[in-house]
Amino acid sequence: MTDFTMKTGDDGVAIITWDVPNKSMNVLSMEGAVALDGLIDQALADDAVKGIVITSGKKDFAAGMDLNVIAGMKDQGGAQGVFDGVMTLHHMLRKIERAGMDPKTLKGGKPIASALPGTALGIGLELPLATHRIFAADNPKAKIGLPEIMVGIFPGSGGTTRLARKLGAMMAAPFLLEGKLSDPKKAKSAGIIDEVVENPLEAARAWVLAAKDADLVKPWDAKGYKMPGGEPFHPAGFMTFVGASAMVHGKTMGVYPAAKALLSAVYEGAMVPFDQALKIEARWFTHVLMNPSSTAMIRSLFINKEALEKGANRPEAPDQTVKKVGILGAGMMGAGIAYVSAMAGIEVVLIDAQQASADKGKALSEGLLDKAISRKKSTPEKKAEVLARITATTDYAALEGCDLIVEAVFEDPAVKAEVTKKAEAVIPADAIFATNTSTLPISDLAKASTRPEQFIGIHFFSPVDKMLLVEIIKGRETGPVAVAKALDFVRQIRKTPIVVNDERFFYANRCIIPYINEGIRMVAEGVNPTLVENAAKMMGMPLGPLQLVDETSIDLGVKIAKATKAAMGDAYPDGAVDEVLFWMADQGRMGRKSNAGFYAYDDAGKRQGLWEGLDAQFPRAEDQPDLHDVQHRLMFAQTLEAVRALEEGVLEDIREGDVGAILGWGFAPWTGGPFGWLDMLGAGRAVEICDRLTAAHGDRFKAPQMLRDMAAKGDSFYGRRAAA
To answer: Model's pTM, two decimal places?
Structure first.
């Protein structure tokens, strides 16, 4: 079976069906594009064909272009290969758009419509935009949009040019620059698609049979076309582009090349004829794809993320699909885990010491579902169905039949040990027990279990319903079935897993704590806090270290610092940090939750700016450091811990290190993660910076031996992985 097939009915309408074999959703390969091009030629040349409808053999239309193909264009032909491949797609889509019409009279073409049964993303929308009419099913679960910007590229198959010319730069901006996705009705309201109907295939067929020559001419091909909102040289259009440029720089801080290139393609393309604009789009797309940031983002946010979600590092074990999960502790974390589990169709037993607490935990799900209903993203029927799956109780006997337990009680080993024993007295012999913890060693917690091979760590990030990452931690005695169970569970609840070995702070917290600490340490040194925060954001970090500690709470930082100091003794390295952190806690400034932290907040909890009291306690030094020095300190504080985690075997796969860093704490996504960033710098350059930072600031910046060895050999992390 090929990706595209064509069948012409007795009414003269050729139905081209897109159905990629062995894929849950259609993606376009170059072979598929060639096949579609051939069918279009065949239909246009056949006098018996009156018009064409392009649809899908799947419940959705398409998930986009196969990004592996895009990466292959670059690897095989460099910039010229990318440009030629993109222009091949442009020629095919332009052929669909012109549909055999006379180029002078714009008459004699054959109508071509799109019938979208469901989701249409990326090329799955760029292809319909080239057709003459887009019909979508009235399917509120379907998503329509151009999300390429989220993985470091932009719509490069005509979507950027067509959408900007169809809607105008201002109206197209949310869909192009932010990757906004809409359901079909909202997409129609925005002007992206034309019709929302019950049966898009039949509606498209009827339109094709009734279409006239004028219905086939796109606005930009008609005489006298003017871009909605004004061209760049029009006063209104000029202000649009000035504002868009400022918005792009404000959001990207100049480190995401795709957004700037997209805006350049729209700006330059708006001043030339349409076909020339497509070439400009292709050149800018090629420019972005040749940027190492684009390669790194595609690798981590698409290829590696997808591989991990499909079980790239899953041990061989029978299917471990979870049927009934018991959750111990109905606080915010346990309640969040209950919600995502019930949403995934899993039966949930939510246990707490007090019935009122258990009921409050279940109420979190009710609140989230009510919010979804108010936003028309759910229904009362769905709410009732999900809530019916959650049993809130104090009775451990209700855990009978659970094949997975997720313990989410206080970060206290004694409390965790107590509930472990209570649960194991009831649950089946083959059930897996997972402890949710962010800092406590799994191997130590497993001592409370009578079956340590079935005991595993599972670290959710808060808030559970929004955060995509789950960190799975193997204890010293954890067996492969427990790992498989945890991975299968994470897949069921639609999160992305990484698997690491047991060591204090595991992987994510091991890296993020030094980032926070370095920012606080600089405050103690008299570095301007504004410089610290902005240096981080200018490197692409979503939050500066001071804002991040406010969000996670300062008292939690104090608790972690005290526990770490007790465990490490004289080797504890962060005394200078504690001076600031403990003083803040003594002032009652516990962060956002207390409306007082490194930042000041108004009564509504809105951040107002850095707290002026910092200057009084920690006066600013007369000589402020260079911006790059601050940035290097903040970035290397994280990345060196990632390398050490790999060197020590805590992290087994650099893909997990990169994906986990981006999804777990927002490590500058434009870099593709800490290992992607070090590969961009080059190991030799990274070691030079480490040596300079070590001389100026101490051994915490000492380059790991692994990095020095790579520098000596001219190796890179992903180069080593490919060779292996």
So the answer is: 0.86
